[in-house]
Fold Hydrophobic protein OSR8.
Amino acid sequence: MPTRCEICCEIMIAILLPPIGVCFRHGCCSVEFIICLLLTILGYIPGIIYALYAIIFVDRDQYFDEYRRPLYSQY
């Protein structure tokens, strides 16, 4: 479970660069990252909205396995 500080940092990064914030939370080869990257290319605001949704509401522990390991895993 990420701490509040980690989530806060991910949100601030997601506002500046939405795909990077999603990458920190879900990993670089995840569906969430690809969707956020495409939305950011199509428009900056939709990318931010989806990044915030992916960081706050999508539970990564439910889909966690070794192949989708995030960048800062504590395991």
About this structure: The helical segments are 4-16, 18-26, 31-42, 44-56.
